[in-house]
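Notes, Module 5: Reading structure tokens.

Key idea: the token line is not a picture. It is a compressed description, and you learn to read it the same way you learned to read a sequence, by spotting repeated patterns. We will look at two proteins. The first is printed below with its tokens.
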Amino acid sequence: MTTAPYETTSVQGQLTISERIRPDEAELFRSLLLDSLPTHYDEVDASFPDSIVDTATAGTDRHGYFTRTKRLFVGRVDGRTQAFTVASYKRGGAVKMGPTVVLPELRRTGLGTAFRRLVEDRILDDQHIRKLYLTVTSGNTRTLLFNLGLGYQVEGVLAGQYRKGSSELVLGKVVRGGRLSDLPYGRRLAPAPAGGVEVSETPPGAQELEAYLTPRMREGFAGIDGTFVHSILDALSEDRQTYACKGKRLLVARQPDGALCGAAVLVPKRGGAAKISPLVADHQGALLELVEHAVHAARQMGRHRLYAIVPELERDTVERLTAHGFHLEAQLREAYKAGVDSFVLGRTL
């Protein structure tokens, strides 16, 4: 348990953080989230806090693919529950912070800042953690200023991320790592071959998909292995197609001879957008066919926005996406691998 003295005009005493959440605190956490988040985000229901509590209790995110686990921290002053925050651990050494909620009567007292600093210090005791990041809706000025005061910097603005007509700011803080002095270009996309490609949602076997994705994602992502591939395939089942279960759709491109030449994972997000990640293709024809099918599938699902996350090394892919109606919205610093930034490109549907 981490402790620190804490005193303001409203509260004084010993501030502690813990991951031992009592049943009454879990209920309070659920209530605070459901009272505050729908003000800024769409499609937030009881399944959202429930999934956080369940994952933190289990110690692993059984529905995640880039997310490995979540930790739920409670802040107490002299044993009295005051605040909560969530830390989502990602492949590659980044941690997404939030949501953070403080009891209404204790907001703007300094408690939230002291609490988050204690939590971040605890997280950064792990030398493998390179980066902390979070998102804040552009209309939530108070939360934006709170996180800027904690040393975060704005890395981009995502249009319509969690609510149509509302923008989401991405904030990050790199604590370990550093830019590579000479970034390689990454894989170039070959010209489209004769004969075209066929895109389907018939999933390949785990071995074939792992053999295809792993070497092609290695330069831009860390921690890509068989568990990553299995997490994608497991998320395709019909009973997983909910936000809480993080359902996904897998698009695969094959050449006329049946060889795999591209793959894209499409993930519907709360608020009406959909994400493509990863997006991997061997040539221009496969990339454009995958994107066209992703756009069509997202529209069928009623999504109003589609965005892709692409390592900056994949410059050919970035150029093709911008020519295909996507706009560069954010540059995520070292998001998935030390020394390698990633671009977020978005398109309104």
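Here is the second protein, with the sequence above and the tokens below, as before.
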Amino acid sequence: MKLRSFGLSSLRSFLVGILIALLTTACISHTAHSPNPQSAKPPADECRMMQHAMGETCIPLNPQRLVIIDSQALSYALALNVKPIAVFARKDSFDISYIKNRLKGVEAIPTINREPNLEKILLLNPDLIIGWSRDISQKNYKLLSQISSTILIPTIKTSSGSYDWKQEFIQAATMLNKVEIANQLIDEYRHRAEELKQKMNHQHGELNASYLQVYDGYLLFLSSKDSFSGEILSDVGFQFPPVPLSNTLSQNSLPISDELPISEEALPELDSDVLFIGTERDNESILKKFQQKPLWSQMRAVQKNQVYIVSEGAWRGYNILAANVVLDDIEKYLINMP
């Protein structure tokens, strides 16, 4: 009987499968002896110890084959002018403008159910793997650590429960040895926000503003002052109108603590001079849908012709690149308006 010969791709998949199985077995065996296994490390004289969300790992002094997992970690690296050889993230994150425009030469590989492709990562032969602790399980961290030195950016939150993107950015910059650049970018953001605040006050005086997020074309969430967009709106001098609590939906449907679900019936109570509406896709149809509703014309921002459709990917980005896109939108619509 003749054995069927393997093609190159089949042979590669077969070998990679064996390697992953071996890594899994080794990880389980190691875990049985130690609850906190050490990551695979380069020689001590070629690495530096780094504290991170999963402990301490020795990482290369000058990594040449960086692999990043999750778009949040990617945005931090790109802001610091650090390009990985590959990134694993949700497919839709690769279409966000401030990420897409910086991905030239980077292999973008979609995750499936937020799970990175371990076989592909193994084939890439990385010398450093960086991820975001929120989206990487302990099991996957252990497996990744068997492939190469792996560090996770800690999830840092403010007292209100919102993500502290500035502190996370500094943590990522520390891992990449780029703290000076990160501090400079944050200072530049603050300086620009202050300049826009002065221009806003000169041109408009005091204004109320709200950011409304639309999910799946109909679910509405109002961002709070403590949210990413709320923080930036506050930085440029916007005030926030009272939240129309009478018609808000159940708090149980909140995706994160800085967004409040709101019904369409409550929209006229949203006493905003300016309303920014963030959508995931199909912006024009979303706007037309709202314009056809009788409640639309009762909104103060509509009556003042100050409703603007913006990118959800930027206005909920929680990173320095997204923050500057939000400032761009504010400048475009309220400072440099025709």
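Summary for the second protein:
- The domain at 34-155 is CATH 3.40.50.1980 (Rossmann fold).
- Confidence is low (pLDDT under 50) at residues 1-15, 26-39, 250-256.
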